[in-house]
Amino acid sequence: MTNIFKALSEESRLRILSLLLESEMCVCEIEDCLNLTQSNASRHLTVLKKSGILDSYKQAQWAYYTINDNFKKDHKDLWEYLQKKLIVLPTYVADYKQLMSYREKNRNCN
């Protein structure tokens, strides 16, 4: 449980989670939308994955991240709370617009 709350105690990780509420994302989308370096994004994603909050899979050279279904099930109350609070982060609207813009330009990893 401590690892979960440590993972949730950093703003960039909360911003990543807020975008993952919408759909899975490739690392390159996360980097671009949140203006993170590859090493920063990787560090944050590793913390979220080790805590059990995220899942990932590889497709060719790309890594995709999604919120772990077991996390949602095992921590139902926390997950419901996060769903409500992540979308009211002050950065959410701008981050979401950046994601939509990124995807519209077809610069995604597919």
Structural features, described:
This protein has a single domain, classed as Winged helix-like DNA-binding domain superfamily/Winged helix DNA-binding domain (Arc Repressor Mutant, subunit A). The protein is 61% helix and 13% strand. It has helices at 2-7, 11-20, 27-34, 38-50, 69-74, 76-86, 92-104; strands at 25-26, 54-59, 62-67. It has a 3-stranded antiparallel sheet. α3 (27-34) crosses α4 (38-50) and α3 crosses α7 (92-104). It is globular. The chain starts with a helix and ends in a 6-residue tail after the last helix.
Topology:
Elements: H1 2-7, H2 11-20, E1 25-26, H3 27-34, H4 38-50, E2 54-59, E3 62-67, H5 69-74, H6 76-86, H7 92-104
Helix pairs in contact: 3-4, 3-7
In CATH's first tier, which class applies?
Mainly Alpha
In CATH terms, the superfamily is: Winged helix-like DNA-binding domain superfamily/Winged helix DNA-binding domain
CATH domain topology: Arc Repressor Mutant, subunit A
Distance between the termini: 35 Å
InterPro entries: ArsR-like_HTH (IPR011991), HTH_ArsR_DNA-bd_dom (IPR001845), HTH_MetalResp_TranReg (IPR051081), WH-like_DNA-bd_sf (IPR036388), WH_DNA-bd_sf (IPR036390)
Domain HTH arsR-type: 1-86
Organism: Alkalibaculum sporogenes
GO molecular function: DNA binding; DNA-binding transcription factor activity
